[in-house]
Design goal:
The protein is α+β, with helices and mostly antiparallel strands. The protein has two helices and six strands; from the N terminus they run αββββββα. It is globular and about 35 Å long.
Length: 98
């Protein structure tokens, strides 16, 4: 697995800050450390940059997700949405020997 953080557009950080300001519970879908689809529910409490590790969101109760691995935040597309879409449509790109 490539653990290198991929920089994300400021638009995504702004969207996350907006979700934090709502102080509501919601769902975040993301790729976990095993590159599998995962989901966590709770309130996003903060967005932090960890030196040499990237941007992370913290969700109560006690979850931390790297921003570049987020697929959706409360139904809104995140930085990894296109990767998820490609993953979901992988069978359309098959190059088998048929």
């Amino acid at each position: 697995m490539d653990t290198t953080f991929t920089p994300v557009s400021y638009d995504y950080r702004e969207m996350i800050e907006e979700e934090i300001s709502k102080c509501k519970n919601g769902k975040v879908f993301f790729f976990n450390s095993e590159l599998k689809l995962d989901c966590v529910e709770g309130q996003i409490t903060r967005l932090v940059e960890l030196q040499n590790r990237g941007w992370f969101i913290h969700i109560n109760p006690e979850s931390s997700i790297r921003v570049d691995r987020i697929i959706t935040v409360n139904g809104r597309p995140g930085p990894a949405y296109d990767e998820y879409d490609s993953y979901a449509n992988a069978c359309l790109d098959c190059k088998g020997g048929y």
